[in-house]
Amino acid sequence: MVERHRREEAPQAPVDLDDKGRALELLLPGILAEFQPEIGATVNLVSVTVKSQDVPSVCRLVKEDPRLSFNFLMCLCVVDYEEHLQVVYHLYSTDMKHMMVLKANVSPEEPSLPSVTSLWTGADWYERESHDLFGVVFEGHPNMAPLLLYEGFEGFPGRRNYEMPEYKEW
Amino acid sequence: MVDLSTEGQLDTVQMMVNMGPQHPSTHGVFRMVLWVDGERIVDLEPHIGYLHRGSEKLCEGELYVQIVTLFDRMDYISNLNNEMIFCRAVERLMGLAVPERAEYIRVILCELNRVASHLLFCGTFGIDAGAMTPIMYAFRDREKIQSMFEAVTGARMMHNYIRIGGVKGDVPDDFSQRMGALLKVLRQGINETDKLLSFSEIFLARTKGIGVIDAETAIAYGMSGPSLRACGVPMDVRKDEPYSVYDRFDFGIPIGEKGDSWDRYYVRVEEMRQSMRIIEQALEQMPDGPTITPSRLVLRPPQGEVYVRGENPRGEIGVYLVSNGADKPYRVKVRPPSFCNLMAIKELLKDTYIADAVVILGSLDIVLGEVDR
């Protein structure tokens, strides 16, 4: 894919958190202090970046802490930033009605991080999908079989450097 | 003397039954491998991906205005809801304001789409349970909604009507009168379908207490929408985090009690009535004015990422949009509601009968275009 680079750097989208987001931004550093997270904010969400091996412990903490109680895994996806792959968890609390995004970077050569299926059963297919499309291995996942692609598919079509095979007409 | 007793002589081995992918009850191309002991399902393995088109990857190669058409084709039963969520994501990232009239048109059409989607569900769910007539009633009414969509957007499906910053064009002059007449017909039609199916003795026997899931498990699976509300959890993005102009309407969130197939069905019937209440109020409040904020054809949103949520007929949809300032998005990820709802099928089908498998799968109201993307 040919990228058209612009001469000047594109501007950053302004951060515009709501009250719940601001409260969360103040609360999170204290709770997650032992993991040394990078806490920031995207346009409408509080984002926390942790080391990939800390993901299960951080997830358990934010799920079980009564001030956070993130019991609903909304979305799990992988973003390919070429120098690293970023695994992104969008978490929501059905009681507190707030949400946050948890991120962990893995290397594109040997991407692997622990699975969170024991915490949220719903992570099952998301992790299989991420494995299909980006090749991220989730350690401890009960069944890492291909989900969206067929058995024996080669390559990781979600990644940006994936080259579409040239199909011949018959 | 012949020994007629079969005690201990019959094999009771487990059998593997392959259901789908080409099976009318799977509502698309979905395959389940069932391990059965007699008629009872012991274990199952769902297989999806037959309709995988790589929509998310395709989005990375298109201009922002072109992506709306790809979203049309994900959940092809509720196109307008899908168009709206993507447009909202881009608007949120760019800080683009939408004219008030456009917001009202969006809400009216999205709610109408919800009614159309639920009507389709009621009809096909009747068929799943063995009732052939309700779909005739449901489709008769759905057809009128499709004609309405055609009058407003120019297409019966794949409308590409909701655009970034507003809607494609204003509604026809006689929109309010036509909507008023349509709502009257719909209300009567829904009552007829409801009377015909909901409390039928046979239908109740097929759906009551079948495919029960409790709230905690449903949340752990990430279920949302009517399937979660049937378990008694009043979770609805339109109320929890009101987007567009939803905070200006008075409407209820129907919830179920037991989380069985019948609850999932009846929550949707009630939701149609609530949607019509919203449409009525929106028609009254709808102001005059422009219908789109002019913006460039080639949009270049600022760098950043945004996650927006919306309430689709099937549940909560989310769009995660990452932009690097270029004219094409860096990454688009969709949280498809059917995907999470379908994941719970393993939980729902354990220890049920094969005949109930069809009903339970039908009660989740999946769209495979969205599950596989």
Account of the 3D structure:
The complex is a heterodimer of chains A (170) and B (373). With 170 residues, chain A is an alpha/beta fold. Chain A has a domain at 19-109: NADH:ubiquinone oxidoreductase Nqo5 subunit (Beta Polymerase, domain 2). Chain A has 3 helices and 7 strands; from the N terminus they run H-E-E-H-E-E-E-E-H-E. The model of chain B has no long low-confidence stretch (mean pLDDT 88). In chain B, strand 4 and strand 5 (166-167) form a beta hairpin. Chain B has a single domain (62-368), classed as Cytochrome-c3 Hydrogenase, chain B (Orthogonal Bundle). Chain B contains 15 helices and 8 strands. In chain B, 47% of the residues lie in helices and 13% in strands. Chain B is of the alpha+beta class. In chain B, helix 11 (261-285) packs parallel to helix 14 (354-364). At the A-B interface, strand 3 and helix 3 of A face helix 3, helix 8, strand 6, strand 7 and strand 8 of B.
How is this structure best summarized?
The complex is a heterodimer of chains A (about 170) and B (about 375). Chain A is α/β, with parallel strands linked by helices and about 170 residues long. Chain A has 3 helices and 7 strands; from the N terminus they run αββαββββαβ.
- Our count of helices of chain A gives 3
Order of helices and strands of chain A: HEEHEEEEHE
Q: What is the overall silhouette of chain A?
A: globular
CATH topology of the domain at 19-109 in chain A: Beta Polymerase, domain 2
CATH superfamily of chain B: Cytochrome-c3 Hydrogenase, chain B
How many structural domains of chain B? Answer: 1
Biggest β-sheet: strands ordered side by side in the sheet of chain B: 1-2-3
Number of strands of chain A: 7
- How big is the Rg of chain A? 18 Å
